[in-house]
Structures are given as structure tokens and as C-alpha cells.
Amino acid sequence: MPSPRPDFLAPYQADLDALRGRDRLRALSKRGGLDFASNDYLGLAESEVYREAARAALARGVPLGAGGSRLLRGNHPEHEALEEEAARFFGAESALFFGAGFSANEALLATLPQRDDLILYDELIHASAHEGMRLSRAESRAVAHNDAEAFEDAVRAVSGAGRVWIVVESLYSMDGDIAPLETLAGIAGRHGAFLLIDEAHATGVLGLGGRGLAHGLEGRDNVVTLHTCGKALGLSGALVCLPRVLGEFLINRCRNFIFATAPSPLLAAAIRAALGVVERADDRRAALAERVRCVGEAMLQLVGAEPSGTHVQPVIVGSDKRALALAERMQAHGHDIRAIRPPTVPNGTSRLRISLTLNVSDAQTDAMIALLARELERSPA
User: Fold this and answer.
1) Is residue 79 annotated as a catalytic residue, yes or no?
2) Domains plus CATH for the chain?
């Protein structure tokens, strides 16, 4: 008799079943309810000014597709114009445009640190950085979160011929707290280290004209910054700002850049327009800052959650099951709040990640907090 046909999908189904059993199964869900989940902090993603910028670019003949990688025929004048504008805007010597923030972060850490180098990274760094470090030839070690003294101790303990790379986020995406960038820059300067700063959740919202928290450090020979365009800028893609020689090194050695089809020239044109919009958006930043202040006070008083002081406000609830149940109940009442579980956050710190944007009103935000307080009372730890 013929042998039974193997079940090719069984191991994958078993893995999914195991995730479901631990309340960690992810699934796509449609958009719905009031926005307390997106990274569109300034409410620009669906703005008419962006639609007009796209229409104007199409009218002057900017194509949707690039047709190839940047090193083949895909290098469009809009890409170069964006990079020149981004370098000027952020104060860097040069900039390089990538199609996504995740791939840009991965590319930086997979390419720039060399074999004898050491990457010292904040323990709460983005998953994209971990993917880059996995591909890197350099050794990597975690350092306690936002602990500048621990970073300095780790740098001092290094022996070897290579460079040290200090890798941090300026504003952490799941905790909403801010890195001590000036102190870290001082450590990097004293010890001949590079400082790589992921500005994903600060770009557009914080710093002079929305230039991020690292604006005063841009342009230094040992500083590399990553500005994603899919959060407060409301579009997609990423801009890496760095010394010109490192930009040329990426063009020659970075596989994510060399072999990828170039991002849409139309997107490049829209981002260039977005930089101008963001630079003039002090009124939006002021409105968001006031909301952050008010929400922080209400969270502490009604929910008992420590204010983050930024537009990312976590409410840590402990178990995966409790976080999922709370998120589902909030969504059922029309408030789009998502549960964040391990491995995205450390074990035992499952949470609701509340994103403060200008896509909702003050009254809607107040109502959300009052409802959350009631739901937390109904769901004891």
C-alpha cells in the first residue's frame, strides 16, 4: 500500500495553535472606531494637502513606479530631490531614501557595523534593529533601558580594534519614554563610538519644526539617524541621515538598497511636500502637546497609569488575556485601542497602547478615558 501522504502544513498549524493557547495569536482586523491606535499623530495621513501634492506631482509627470533599483534605471530625480531636501531639513550631511522604516533599520545594522565592531543596544529597541543585528557580522549586547551609566560602563569594558555602535530610539514606541540623547552623544564622543538613533516616533512631533529629538546632533561624523515617514509624516518609507561617506558605503554594500526596486517616485515627491507641511505645523504640535498634558493628568487620576509625557501612552495590565479582553471591550464601544503582548513587550507587561493623535476630539478622548477606567474596574488583575 502507498505510504500516507505527509501533512506539509501540520507544523505550521501546531505553531499557530500554540500561540492561540497562550493568547498570543495575531490576526488582521479592519479599521473601525475612533483612532487611538495609529501612528498618524498629527492627523496628516488623509489630509487634503497631501492629496493636492500627489495630484500636482502626477500633473508634472512623476511616475508611480520606479521600474528598477536605484542602481539600475530606478533612480528618479524625485528621489534625489527628496534626499537633498531631507539632508537640509534635518541638518545632516546626506540622506538616503528607503521604502520602509523596518527595512532601513535592518539595513543599517546589517551593513554599517563591521566584523570587529560591537553593537550596544537598548534592551527595548525595535524588532527591526534586532533583525539587522541578526544579519550583522558584528557582535551585539543588550544594555539596560535608558540607562546612560550602563552604556558608559559597557563602552569602557570593550577591548578590541573595532568601533562601538550605541543603538537607541529617541522615543520608545511601546513605553513612550525618551532616551537621554545628549548624554549618550557625550559618551559616544568620549569613547570614539558611533551613535545610531531611531527617530521613528519623534519625527514630525518633537524637536524644532518637527525635526526630532536628535536635531542638535545631526551632521556629526559619528551620528546616524533614521526618520520614518509612515508615522507623524503620514506617508510611508524612511530617510536615513548620515555622513556622506557612510551613505556612499550603503549604496555600495547594503543589499537592501542595492537589490530592492526603488520606492515610488510619486511617494518621494509627496514626502518632500510633507517635510514642508510638517515644518509649518507648530499649531498641530501645540494641540497635540496640550492633549498629551491633559491625558496624562486624567490617566493618573482615573486610571492610575503613570503619564508617559508623550503621545504614546501605555496602560500596563499584566496578562495577555486581560489585555486582549480589555482591548476587545474598548473596541466594542467604538474606541480602536489595541493590546500589545510579548514578544513585542517583555513578559508580564502586556498592555494597551494608547496612541494620541489629532484624528479625534478632546471630548472623544475624555470619553475614552472614562470608559477605560470603568472597564479596568470590571477586569481586576
Assistant:
1) no
2) 31-45+282-378 (3.90.1150.10), 62-279 (3.40.640.10)
